[in-house]
From TrEMBL:
GO biological process, one term: nucleoside metabolic process
Record lineage: Bacteria, Pseudomonadati, Bacteroidota, Flavobacteriia, Flavobacteriales
Keyword Glycosyltransferase (UniProt): yes
Entry protein name: Purine nucleoside phosphorylase
The family this protein is said to belong to: Belongs to the PNP/MTAP phosphorylase family.
Amino acid sequence: MLKYITETADYLISKGFESPELGIILGTGLGKILDDIDIIAEVSYNHIPNFPTATVEFHKGKLIYGTLSGKKVVVMQGRFHIYEGYSLQDVTYPVRVMKQLGIKTLLVSNASGAINSNFKKGELMLIDDHINLQGSSPLAFRGVEQLGERFTDMSAPYDLEINKKFETIAKDKGITLHKGVYASVVGPQLETRAEYRMLKIIGADAVGMSTVPEIIVANHLNLKVAAVSVLTDECDPDNLKPVNISEIIAMAGKAEPQMIALFKELIKTL
C-alpha cells in the first residue's frame, strides 16, 4: 500500500498540493465551508491515481487544497462509505494520502441521528468517543505494521486539547455543542426501532455510517483528530417517524453555518 500512497501523493504534489497543515473531511450536506477557502488547487477523485470514486449522488468527489483561517488545508469534498461497496482500506485511503502530504491534524464532520433524547435535530455534537459497529477494522490487513503500530491504542481517540478548544469556541459564540458517543454502523438503511433501543442501551448518543474508520486510521498515523456531528433527525423508538434522505440533507444544511463557524475559529488556534 505504501507504494500506492506515495504515487498518489506525488501526483497531488505535482498538481500544487504543497505541505498542507491539516485535513478536513466534509460529511453529508456540509460543503459550504469551501466558500471560505482560498482555493489553490482542486482535483476530481476520478483523476487521482489509486483513489476511490464517490458513488453517492449527494457526495461530491473532489480533493481541494487552499488556505482557511491562515492555514494550508486539504479538504475532502465527499467521503467514501462501506455501504457503497468499498473496503475499509478504500474508505480510509485518503487519510493515509493526506498524512503523506504532510498534515498533522484531521478534522471530520458528519451527519448523524440523535439517540440521546436530550439532543435535538439541528444541533451539533462533539464526538468524545465512539463505538465501532461496522464489523471490521481498517487496520485488519497484511502489512499494516509497515504504516504504523498494528495494535493502535484507542483509549483517547479524539484529541482532548482540540475538543476543549471546540467547547470554548461554542460557548463564546452561543452555539449548542453537545458532547457524546458516536456509533458507526454499516447502513445504508436507517435503523429499526429495536436497533435504536439497542444503541441507547450500549451508550450511543448518536448514530451514523461513517467517521469511525477515518478516526482509527488517523490514530494509527499519530494524527491529532477531532470530529463534530450535525444531528439531522431524532431517533426515539417509541415515537419514530419515517425520515428520508432529502430531509436529512436539508437539516444538515440548516445547521452548517454553526459548524463552519466552529471549524474556522478552531483552525485559527491550531
